[in-house]
Amino acid sequence: MGLEHTQDQAIHMLRVRNFGKLSRADIRFGNFTVLAGPNNTGKSFVSKLLYSIFNALNADLERERVFRLIWSLGIDAKRFARERRSPLPLWSIVSEIGTVALSYARADNPDIDQVTSSLLALADKWRRELSEPMPAAAAIEDDDDRRQQSAFELANLRRAVDHLLEELKRAGNDRAAFIEDELKYRLMRNLSGNFQVPNIRHLRGDPNDNLTVNVDDVLHIDLAQNTLSLKLNSAALGGLSDASNVVYLESPIYWKIFAALRDSRRSLISRRRARRTALTGVPDYFHDLAESLGYEYTEEMAYPEIHRRLIDIVGGRVSVSEFGEMSFEEAGRSYPLSNAANGVANIGVLAMLIERKIIDHGTMLFIDEPEAHLHTAWQAIVAEALFRLAKEGVTVVIATHSADILKWLEVHLKEYPNDAQFVALNRFPGPSSEDEDLETQLARIKQDLTRSFFDLYMRGM
Amino acid sequence: MAGLDEFLKEVLQTEDQPVAPSLFAYHMDGTSPNDNMRARADLGTCHCCDYFTFSNGVVALIEETRLGLQIRNIRKTLAHLKEDERNKSLLETLRRENQLKVYGSLLVLCRLARKLADRAEAVAVSGTADFWLAFSDHIGQDDTQVVDHIRDDLKRHLRSVLTPAVVKDVHIVPTNELGKMLPSRPAPL
Fold first, then answer.
1. What ipTM was reported for this prediction?
2. B139: nearest CA partner in chain A
3. pLDDT digits (tens, 9 = 90+) for A82-118
4. Where does residue A54 fall: left (phi above 0), alpha (psi -120 to 50 degrees), or beta otherwise?
5. Which string of b and e fits B168-183 if b means at least 16 CB within 10 Å?
6. DSSP 3-state assignment of A367?
7. From edge to edge, which strands make up the β-sheet containing A228-232?
8. What's the pTM value of the predicted model, to 2 decimals?
9. A181 and B CB contact within 8 Å
């Protein structure tokens, strides 16, 4: 495979303190980032943290925040109107809020200033309408308790509109703080959802100390008891926030039971009235990715050669029906993905993501254990495919304990020494020695991983 | 050139078998105990490095060993230790012995460069050295990962002493694979 250099390497540094079992870790992060080491050393923990951060950083934070404010107001208003059998003026507000939210969500590139100014006018109108006495829904409002409750909820709704007004004004006056608030919200939601913890304070190793994360001195996160604070230097974000999308790929088993996971989540969300982050044991990154399978895509994939190589290896392709059923198509027949071998599902899903342009130029791709269920030869093929993606515009982060993948990397770098510039290698448990060259670091990690085989071998001699 | 090429007349052999028909290398011990390359270079009791050759900018220092036997012998001397301690000590001992082979081979290279001045320039131009430890007894069917483990250990410990500018790489390969890996070097006319 002829490998060409297509971009310059940028190595970033993630500094983590008191994060799970990692009391202190400095993680190098580049085009092809390897987090390598034995089980239970914190690799997946770090990859989930990176995903949570970059998923948040790469969202359209301003737009998301405005949308979330409108949407949450709409939900409050609708609930109030429905439960109180409220009169028409309130329903008309609900309807207006819904219309604004949808048109905003569907707009390709909304002009944030224009949206803010029209929303301000509308919110002001809603505020006035909500201040006026509502005609009572007689049967309900007869009851004193219900009347009090109704007044209380109406006051809440007014406050929500006030909040929207304040926030929109703030967006105009101090956009950086407005964005930072959304980043903070998303970070908290991502951390809780991706680690499936009810409270992110559980992510701290030492409960008496703060958890801190620093990315290139551009983003600093500090988690005390229940408070997450952050400092963001938006102007210096550079390449950290220009990913076209951020994807986390884990065990193929999730994909084999995709329909069941999706349905159980829908059911849970509907019972909890649209609360998105529900703890089910299945991390949010899976659902984020599953959601993106519903997006429309063109046939012009960015990496047809890599896709071809992968489907040739497994002898078929994974497809998703419009109803979300995943199947494997092989030699003219199709059967449910759940019946395919796990290794086939692993490589097949990777190929499907390329085919559906979910893995595209500018994607940030996190893969936990790309070696899962693969024999040595297929591990080498996956390693080669991922490295090539990394060279051709995808930022790839793998967490692995495969000596075979590292051997592939060692041999590849020997054949193409210039490709070392794309690699950021991290040994778990750390620290990696900064004095060591890449070759020696690789040797050290491989030795960690092959030690048990060596010991068994010697025992059998 | 005088005094050196005569030692290039032999095809590189391990266990008295040619490694490859066209693979010639300087045989340090040669056939005559009193007039071989080692004696000519005045290497005295330094018996490291069985062959050496240079090609494509790299000096290849080749040492033949019986790795399986070496491991068994070391294990015997460590029989009093617990299994995990024994394996740790085994690896350390193996590393020390192999390190000495690398250092000894480099010493040979230095002496050759100095002693055989006509070759010094060619060796100097080659710049860096690759060390090949060719083991003649397979230690088992599935020894690849074990050999890789030993090599990784040796390599990273050597790195703290010898930079890639001195020893570029270390290889531990079965003798029957050596021929495929070394660049062929024809015999002089």
1. 0.78
2. A461
3. 665 555 566 677 677 777 766 766 677 767 677 777 7
4. alpha
5. bbbbbbbbeebbeebe
6. strand
7. A22-29, A12-19, A211-215, A219-223, A228-232
8. 0.84
9. no
